[in-house]
Amino acid sequence: MTFANPLRIPPLDEGTIQAGVRAFDLTLQAGTTALVPQGATPTWGVNGTILGPTLRVRRGERVRLAVNNSLPEATTLHWHGMRLPARADGGPHHMIEPGATWETTWTVDQPAATLWYHPHPHGQTELHTLREIGGLLLVDDVETVAAHLPDEYGVDDIPEILQDRTFDDAGAFVETERIDVGMLGDTMLGNGTVGPYLEVTATLTRLRVLNASAARTYTLCLADNRPFTLIATDGGLVPAPVPLTRLMLSPGERADIVVEMSAGERLSLRSTAQDLGVSARLAERMGGADELDLLELRAAASLRDSPALPPVLGTTGGLDARVPASQRTFDLGDNRINNQNYGRESHRPARRGGHGGGVERREQSHPSPQFSRARRAVSRARSRRKTAPARARGLEGHDLHSPRRHAAPRDAVRPQRRRRGALHVPLPPAVARRPGHDGSVSGRRESRAGEPRARNRARNRARGGWGWGREGHTALYTGASPRRRVGRAASLAAHT
Ligand SMILES: [Cu+2]
């Protein structure tokens, strides 16, 4: 690809100090942005038409954010990676109606890190993020200040928000095409710039890379394979600089890397083909085979000499591994955790944790009481169904053995599961997938205990699919395959 456009640098917003509180005013608004030649792109932004300012706060201070929603739809603003009380979180329970302002406040108390704010409305996180609401939220602390890292924003400390998009013939974002794991675009954006380049003016440049894509995982590298240096991850500074030639970032992840350059040279940041830990066919569908140009770094004819990176970086940020509360092992791969499918009976208890917090409940060796209860309920429901007449299951008239079964009502999938005796129903070909989707990414399970099944079913149908996942991690599953439906059937059975 050609790098034809200067990398857009989101403005830095340090707020204003009001009575000892750092205060920010954010307005979510709709507009259009020139991104591609075929036409202006309708976009949403924060205090602008695309993305939002980079917010900067310091550890120890109190912050207040007023978020005004001037969009035509209700949404939320969530502080991804920030340690804060639930009432300040901006999750799906903090919907901001059009025209309303949501004000939230908390005291920043966590190590310096690169965080991400983005919308988090129930079932619409992906869509609203795709429309370009979001930005970086930087936390500084005494360590980062003392470390003499590249920290001049927009000069040698550069945000790099990675997003993939597909444009239609008029230049609008395509919002409906999706794979199992979410939207996968064919065009890269860096900070809302197509084909971006950056004028580099110092020997060391820090890139704060955020994977703000819904489904795509990147494996960063430099075009000539030279090493770069990892200095921080989601949780903040790493203990010491780590030289790398490859770095994988899944959706929601951040990494601060430092690139060294000589005067006059050009170097591109790329994403290489990668091992996503799934079958080759699935990996290809998930973009694992894609080679992508992300950003061209253009060094000036003469560069300012940057101080060398310190040998020791973070000392306060890490977890203390000497006194673990308990030790657990998670083997993640091929849509499974510890070789168990997730999104099955283990799923309902898992909802309690929010944001992926339920994983530990899927641990095999010590299932929680909730886990065991759910599992017992499912097996009870299974044995009941074995004796239930086909009519009661709504199956009369459907030949379960014919290829038409994908077109049969969802309930028809249940006997198929029983016949196979397992939940391992192969994924159908892509054409069997339902086109269109409401754009859900956060993947909360929709069925709720105690609600009538019909209502659950109606809600899920309206939602256009069935999915789950852990936002901010690799798994953002939102497909509507028979396998998912089986999981759903099992879950609903637990409620009867
Ligand atoms: Cu998030």
Write a structural description:
- Helix content is 14%, strand content 31%.
- It is of the alpha+beta class.
- It folds into two domains: 5-304, Cupredoxins -  blue copper proteins (Immunoglobulin-like, Sandwich); 333-493, no CATH class.
- The strands form six sheets. The chain has a seven-stranded mixed β-sheet with strand order 14-13-12-16-21-18-19, with no helix packed on it. A six-stranded mixed β-sheet has the order 1-15-23-22-17-20, with no helix packed on it. Strands 2-6-11-10-8 form a five-stranded mixed β-sheet.
- The termini are far apart.
- Residues 344-367, 386-452 and 460-496 have low confidence and may be disordered.
- The protein binds copper (II) ion.
- Copper (II) ion is lined by residues 78, 80, 118, 252, 471-472.
Task: Sum up the structure in keywords.
496 residues, alpha+beta, 2 domains, 7-stranded mixed beta sheet, 8 helices, 14% helix, binds copper (II) ion
Instruction: Tell me what the CATH architecture of the largest domain is.
Output: Sandwich
The CATH class of the largest domain: Mainly Beta
Would you identify the CATH H-level superfamily of the largest domain? Answer: Cupredoxins -  blue copper proteins
What small molecules does this complex bind?
copper (II) ion
Taking the sheet with the most strands, its summary is: 7 strands, mixed
Count of folded domains: 2
- Helix % is 10-25%
Question: What fold name stands as the CATH topology of the largest domain?
Answer: Immunoglobulin-like
Strand ordering within the main sheet: 14-13-12-16-21-18-19
User: What is the beta-strand fraction?
Assistant: 25-35%
Radius of gyration: 24 Å
What's the N-to-C terminus distance?
A: 55 Å
Whole-number mean pLDDT = 77
